[in-house]
Amino acid sequence: MVDDDESVRRSTRRLLESFGYRAAVFESAEGFLRFGQLRDTSCLVLDVQMPGMDGLQLQTQLAAEGCGIPVIFITAHDDQESRRRALRAGAVAFLGKPFTDQQLLQAIRSVLRRDEGSLCGGEHGRY
Hints:
By secondary structure, the chain is an alpha/beta fold. The chain has helices spanning 6-18, 29-34, 55-64, 80-88, 101-114, and strands at residues 44-47, 71-75, 93-96. It contains five helices and three strands. The longest helix is centred in the last third of the chain and has 14 residues, at 101-114.
């Protein structure tokens, strides 16, 4: 999960872990890229607006690098243009904040059921 809001990171991590998912959280897109575990990422929950590289830019960079990590966008700034760009670029969901736990879990379960094979570099993810 990448979100610049600490409370969102903390609560979302707790939610995911309470349902048995492993979760790594980052306060910036740049931090996520430095993580070095792209091949181990099954799903990316990503804020749209962040300082530095925003979520849409990260999605574009991952696609350019051939990393097909499924992206679920979350945002407090739900505008039609961002939504359109994200979904056109392959995002699997675009959730406005506040979203319900059930909405996020449903989107993640949808991603994990797909079993798309190669996500990034030829291996399935674990995060």
